[in-house]
């Protein structure tokens, strides 16, 4: 297995085993950090959890993980709610225990830098969508408030990286439900060289047909399968 230098940041896997395996194969054997939404939408929740456990990925919880555990789908559209209920019924006790143990945020010392991780935003860990276009005026505030060099968020499924004098804020995009018109899986590699932090976004082809077929065969909404082919 090859190894990409740096740390892999992934998010929004959404029970898409084929996409997760493609991303992990692309990255190789290095450390992996997951920014939530491990389950939901897709048909392989337990297999995805096992893959992350095998890789000893450092994970946080996302809103779809929370919904599958709690049954709270008040903020979801009908199809997302259906998928959350389906996921809840199909989680093994081991997978449920894994998700229940995940925190809503983490702060880690990585490569001599302080990195804060959450799914939504530092102000609303599960639900707030952070886009560069809507939140860039808050990024220095986040970095100062948290006293970190890097803030990593997920939830939007849209990759971005923002760099300022105080530090760096980024979203790795989505592994299992890509959006923005690119159907390939997205993840990010964080590196530090001579004290300088950088983030590289990587896009990976995967077996969409197999993932989509599993969704349909599981009785999940067909639209969740169809969107995989468009990246929307």
Give a quick set of tags describing it.
single chain; alpha/beta; 232 residues; 5-stranded mixed beta sheet
Blueprint of the fold:
Elements: E1 7-10, H1 17-27, E2 32-34, H2 45-54, E3 58-59, H3 63-70, H4 78-90, H5 93-100, E4 105-110, E5 113-118, H6 132-135, H7 139-146, E6 150-152, E7 160-163, E8 168-171, E9 185-193, E10 196-204, H8 208-217, H9 222-226
Parallel strand pairs: 1-2, 2-3, 5-6, 6-8
Antiparallel strand pairs: 1-9, 4-5, 7-8, 9-10
Description:
By secondary structure, the chain is of the alpha/beta class. It is built from nine helices and ten strands. Strands 3-2-1-9-10 form a five-stranded mixed sheet. A five-stranded mixed sheet has the order 4-5-6-8-7, with helices on one face. Helix 1 (17-27) links the parallel strand 1 (7-10) and strand 2. Helix 3 (63-70) crosses helix 4 (78-90). The longest helix is centred in the middle third of the chain and has 13 residues, at 78-90. The model has no long low-confidence stretch (mean pLDDT 96).
């Amino acid at each position: 297995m090859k190894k990409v230098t740096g740390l892999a940041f992934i998010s929004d896997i959404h029970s898409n085993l084929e996409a997760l395996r493609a991303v992990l194969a692309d990255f190789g054997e290095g450390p992996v950090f997951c920014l939530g939404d491990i389950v939901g939408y897709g048909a392989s929740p337990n297999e995805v959890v096992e893959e992350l456990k095998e890789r000893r990925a450092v994970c946080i919880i996302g809103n779809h993980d929370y919904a599958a555990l709690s049954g709270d789908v008040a903020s979801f559209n009908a199809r997302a709610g259906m998928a959350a209920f389906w996921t809840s019924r199909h989680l093994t006790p081991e997978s449920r225990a894994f998700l229940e143990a995940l925190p809503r945020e983490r702060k880690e010392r990585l490569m001599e830098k302080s990195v804060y991780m959450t799914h939504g935003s530092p102000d609303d860990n599960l639900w707030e969508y952070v886009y560069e276009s809507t939140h860039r005026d808050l990024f220095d505030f986040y970095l100062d408030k948290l006293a970190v060099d890097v803030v990593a968020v997920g939830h939007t499924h849209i990759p971005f990286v923002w760099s300022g004098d105080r530090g760096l804020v980024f979203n790795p995009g989505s592994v299992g439900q890509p959006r923005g018109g690119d159907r390939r899986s997205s993840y990010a590699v964080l590196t530090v060289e001579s004290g300088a932090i950088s983030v590289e976004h990587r896009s990976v082809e995967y077996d969409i047909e197999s993932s989509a077929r599993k969704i349909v065969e599981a009785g999940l909404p067909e639209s969740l399968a169809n969107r995989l082919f468009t990246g929307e």
